[in-house]
Structure formats: C-alpha cells, structure tokens
Amino acid sequence: MSSNLPPEQSANAPSPSGALLLDAEALYRELLSGVRALCDAHTRLVGVTSGGAWLAQRLHQDLGLADEAGFISSAMHRDDFSKRGLSSGGQTLLPFEVNDAHIIVIDDVLYTGRTIRAVINELFDYGRPASIRLAVMVDRGGRELPIQANFAAARVTLPASQSLTLARDDRGVYTFKLEAQ
C-alpha cells in the first residue's frame, strides 16, 4: 500500500483560496505503478462506474493487458437503494469469466466502504472469483465498514460535508472536484 504522493504533490496543501489541491494526473501515474505491482498476466481489471470505469479503461490500455476491462455498478446492491435507486448510472459489463478470476476492483475515491461492499456482492452474482483486490486513487478515510484498499495513490482527510469526485475532460485528462454535500 502506498500513502506517498508524488514529490510535487501534497494532499493537504491548501491553495491560495484554501481549497485542497490534488493533481489527478500525478495520482493516476501512482495508481498505474501500484496496479502494475498487483497485476500478473491473468489479472482482470473491473472499474466501478463511473470514475473507476474510466480509470480501469486507461489502466488496461497503459498496462497492455490482453482481455478487456470490466465495469461494475453498485446500484442493485446498495444499502441506500430505496433513496438512490438506479441513479448511480452505468451497468455491469464483465467480458470475462468471473469464476476463479483474480480481479482488481478499481475506484476513484474510497470513503465509507459501502460502494465496495455493494460491488463485491454484484461480482458474486456473476460467479466466485479466486481473489478480489482493491486499488483506488484516493482513500479519504471515514470508513463505516471494514473495507481497505490494497493500494491507494493518496490518502486525504476531508470533512463529511465535502465530496471528492473524479472528472474527465474530452481529452481524457483527469481532475478532481471538491464540493459541499
């Protein structure tokens, strides 16, 4: 697990306006390095919709993996489904056999652990993987469930009143948005 940021990156360094600065592209490079260390020729990447799916696609390409990356939605297994419904968007698409697969789940931000719990339940609807590991760009703490990333490119502390969201522009360049909830 990594808790180090690139030398030019400080997760808790405020900008002149007092906002948290996170260089999403630098953190992607850290994530790429961490996922490369977790992968072998038979590893399957599965990105959590939507930010994790974007990351999984790019990681898959940058790592030169043979099989297509999968995408997974947490919507059907969320404990707050009655409030959120299918609003989290995206559908599960797993273009490989889940049984006995070694899977790395990719997500942008790990917070309470509830999304990852729902994703693991969704994976088991498709079969029984040999192993499931988790790699995230940012671990913001605040866990409500005993879920932990095998690799996190950065660890930051944010108040519960703020959300951190990965954004991607038309060129595929990542940035983070910090918003009040």
User: What kind of oligomer do you see?
Assistant: single chain
**How far apart, in Å, are the first and last alpha carbons?**
29 Å
Count of distinct strands: 7
Question: Major sheet: order of its strands?
Answer: 2-1-3-4-5
Please bin the fraction of helical residues: 10-25%
Total helical elements: 4
Class from secondary-structure proportions: alpha/beta
**How many structural domains are formed by the residues?**
1
- Helix-strand string: HEHEHEHEEEE
CATH class: Alpha Beta
Main pleated-sheet profile: 5 strands, parallel
Q: Into which percentage range does the β-strand content fall?
A: 25-35%
CATH architecture assignment name: 3-Layer(aba) Sandwich
Tell me, briefly, the overall form: globular
Fold-level CATH name: Rossmann fold
Uncertain runs with pLDDT below 50, 5 residues or more? 1-18
Radius of gyration: 16 Å
